[in-house]
Specification:
Strand order of the largest sheet: 4-1-5-6-7
Number of domains: 1
Radius of gyration: 18 Å
Distance between the termini: 9 Å
Order of helices and strands: EHEEHEHHEHHEHHHEHH
CATH topology: Rossmann fold
Number of strands: 7
Helix content: 40-55%
Largest sheet: 5 strands, parallel
C-alpha cells in the first residue's frame, strides 16, 4: 500500500458545514480515494490555510515527504487565498482591500512549494478548486455585518465573488503548465451539473458529502485515464 502526502485547506481536510457548524466528515474524498485505490493519504491540510500557511506546514514535514514510499505529493490551495477580510470591508467599503494572498504572492509561494517537492524527488500534483455559490457565500460572509456595504465594495455585482474565485482557479492551471506538473480538474465535474449548488454546503463554498463523491470521481477518472500507478 503506497502513501501519498497531501497539503491544503479545509476542502482537502474534509470540512463540511451543517446546522451552522463546521465538522470533518468521515465521507471525504480523501477517505473514498484511500479505499478505492488501496492507499494511505497523510493528510496535513489545515482549516483556513492559505498557501503561505501551507508552506509553513510543508516545511515542518519535509522528513515525512522524504521518507514516504509514495511518489506523489498532493497540493490543494486557493479558496482561502482569494478571500477577504469581510469585517474590514463592511466597516469601510470605500478604501482598498487586499485578499489574503495577492495573485502574485499566491503564484510565487505555490511555485516555491512545487519546486521544493521536485527537489525532494517527488511529483507534485495540483488540485483545482471546486466552484462556489456566490449567493450562499455572500449570505454567509455578511452575517452580522453590513451586507449593503459589502455589496457596495463589490460595485453591486453579485457575481464578483465567483469571478474573483475563478481568477485564482485559472492561476492553478497556469501554474501546472508552467511548472510541468499534473493538475487534476475537480472543477468541471461540478459545472457539468445543471444545479451544482446541491453539491455544496449552505455556506456556498465547502463541498458537501455528495460533493466529495464528485471530487473522488474526478480523481479516479484522472488516474484511470492516464493509467497512473499509485
Amino acid at each position: 500500500m503506497g502513501t501519498i502526502t497531501a497539503f491544503g485547506d479545509s476542502v482537502l481536510k474534509g470540512v463540511i458545514y451543517e446546522d451552522e457548524h463546521y465538522r470533518v466528515t468521515d465521507a471525504s474524498f480523501q477517505k473514498i480515494c484511500e479505499e478505492s485505490f488501496g492507499i494511505t493519504i497523510e493528510n496535513k491540510a489545515r482549516f483556513g490555510s492559505t498557501v503561505t500557511k501551507g508552506e509553513s506546514v510543508f516545511s515542518k514535514n519535509l522528513s515525512l515527504i522524504e521518507d514516504s514510499d509514495g511518489d506523489y505529493v498532493v497540493l490543494e490551495f486557493g479558496g482561502n487565498d482569494c478571500d477577504f477580510n469581510w469585517k474590514e470591508i463592511s466597516e469601510d467599503p470605500d478604501r482598498e482591500h487586499l485578499p489574503s494572498s495577492t495573485i502574485e504572492n499566491f503564484t510565487e509561494t505555490y511555485r516555491s512549494i512545487i519546486n521544493e517537492i521536485k527537489d525532494l524527488g517527488k511529483i507534485p500534483v495540483l488540485l483545482s478548486m471546486p466552484p462556489i455559490d456566490s449567493a450562499r457565500y455572500f449570505k454567509q460572509i455578511s452575517k452580522g455585518l453590513s451586507a449593503e456595504n459589502i455589496m457596495k465594495w463589490m460595485r453591486n455585482d453579485s457575481q464578483y465573488i465567483t469571478n474573483w474565485h475563478e481568477r485564482y482557479n485559472i492561476e492553478i492551471f497556469k501554474l501546472a503548465i508552467s511548472t510541468q506538473v499534473p493538475v487534476i480538474d475537480i472543477t468541471s465535474i461540478f459545472l457539468e451539473k445543471k444545479n451544482y449548488s446541491r453539491y455544496l454546503c449552505e455556506d456556498g463554498i465547502h463541498p458537501n458529502e455528495e460533493g466529495h463523491k464528485l471530487i473522488a470521481k474526478a480523481i479516479e477518472e484522472h488516474v484511470r485515464k492516464r493509467k497512473i500507478v499509485l
